[in-house]
Design goal:
Blueprint lengths: L5 H8 L13 H7 L14 H11 L11 E5 L3 H10 L5 H4 L2 E8 L2 H4 L10 H24 L3 E5 L6 H7 L6 E10 L13 H4 L12 H12 L9 H4 L7 H10 L6 H7 L7
Antiparallel strand pairs: 1-2, 2-4, 3-4
Helix pairs in contact: 3-7
The structure holds flavin mononucleotide.
Length: 274
């Protein structure tokens, strides 16, 4: 018997993932399984109450130790937005999205709420603030999608950390995790196929023995959405006869991003060796 999420699981993973039984019907889970990043938006503005609701939902995300180390900047000013968008011209949706938020890890507030000598510039402080901001980002994404909006995170801002820090007037121990474009989608977009659970889900202990299965995933994904004509850095790596997700991601990972980030954090009060 086909189970209720058969179509959605096939859309997400490229095959009908076995749930081990019939799971209960839930329209929101269907929507999550079909979710997708959107990079083209209609001109329709995001109504103020909708934007505030998305932010309120984002700030409802779980928070490590209730430290509440996520902060959000609404970039409402057109000039401010254009300054950010100019840093990433190959991602024009940063400028064209009707609304734009920046999710910050905020390890500063914990030090400022007290006269106690709280030292939150350690790896733990940085990591906790990053996780809080990431959870808020994803909660915003799911809330926005539930309300019919499309979103796209923009972490490439961190590749221009000095300028972003200046534009947003970020003080010590406050750093961007990612921006978030929001708007009503102008196109359907596409579902990005995920690695099969046998690769990403381990039982009782870590086991990467299923890595060979990734080759099948590459083929499955290629059959739906080929990257053959969008090969990265062919001048360096050549043109591959078969160009799947693995090759694409390996090439991407070869050109390190965020080169100045560690030094920037260090200059702003973080000592990640502690
Ligand atoms: C933390 C984070 C940062 C991202 N940064 C960017 C970015 O800078 N530019 C962009 O176009 N997409 C960005 N994305 C979107 C990813 O490319 C996208 O989530 C991924 O391709 C999977 O697609 P899906 O979200 O549609 O499933 C980011 C996503 C995350 C979670």
């Amino acid at each position: 018997m086909t189970q209720p999420y058969s179509d959605e699981l096939t859309a997400r993973f490229g095959f009908d993932v076995d749930l081990g039984g019939t799971a209960e019907e839930n329209p929101w889970i269907r929507q999550v399984l079909l979710r997708r990043t959107q990079r083209r938006y209609s001109d329709r503005p995001v109504p103020e109450p909708v934007l505030r609701l998305v932010i309120a939902a984002a700030l409802s995300a779980s928070s490590k130790s209730d430290y509440q180390q996520a902060s959000v900047i609404r970039v409402d000013d057109r000039g401010q937005r254009e300054r950010l968008a100019a840093l990433v011209p190959d991602m024009p949706w940063t400028g064209t999205a009707p609304a734009f938020l920046v999710f910050l890890g905020d390890a500063r507030r914990l030090e400022r709420i007290t006269s106690h000598p709280v030292k939150n510039g350690t790896l733990e402080g940085f990591f906790n603030a990053t996780v809080d901001a990431a959870l808020a980002l994803q909660t915003a994404t799911l809330a926005a999608e539930t309300l019919g909006l499309g979103t796209c995170p923009i972490s490439v801002l961190r590749n221009h950390i000095e300028k972003v820090g200046d534009i947003l007037a970020l003080p010590d121990k406050v750093f961007p995790v990612a921006g978030l474009c929001l708007g009503y989608p102008a196109q359907q977009g596409f579902i990005s196929m995920r690695l099969p659970p046998e690769v990403t889900v381990h039982r009782d202990r870590y086991d990467d023995g299923a890595t060979a299965v990734v080759a099948h995933y590459d083929r499955r994904r290629d059959a739906r959405h080929s990257l053959k004509d969008r090969q990265k850095s062919p001048d360096i790596f050549g043109t591959a006869e078969f160009y799947g997700w693995s090759e694409d991601k390996a090439r991407q990972a070869m050109s390190a991003e965020g080169a100045g980030f560690a030094a920037w954090l260090k200059a702003r009060g973080f000592d990640l060796t502690k």
